[in-house]
Amino acid sequence: HMIQKSYSSIVIQLVKDDASSKSEKQIEEELTKELNTEFKGRLEIEYQWLDTIPTDENGKTKLIEKVFKVE
Fold first, then answer.
1. In angstroms, rounded to a whole number, what is the distance separating the alpha carbons of residues 71 and 53?
2. Domain extents for the chain?
């Protein structure tokens, strides 16, 4: 789940798969590398590790959520 806080700042909420051999740090490093390549290093990324991804008021899980207003 990705939350876009501004044009250059996102929060990525993740749930660790117990079957994965990668550590949280390895996953964060790989995602950061990929996103910095895609966005040319202009993205501030915060990671949050959760037990479950929160759902919206309709019980759905959004992949991307925007929490800032464009003026």
1. 29
2. 2-66
pLDDT, tens only, 21-65? 999 999 999 999 999 999 888 889 999 999 999 888 899 988 888
* Token pair of 9 as six digits: 């700042």
Compute how many other C-beta atoms are within 10 angstroms of the C-beta atom of residue 10: 20
Please tell me whether the overall predicted TM-score, pTM, comes out greater than 0.85 for this model. no
Long-range residue pairs from 54-62, CB within 8 A, at least 24 positions apart, any chain: 54/1, 54/13, 61/1, 62/1
pLDDT band at residue 66 using 50, 70 and 90 as cut-offs? confident
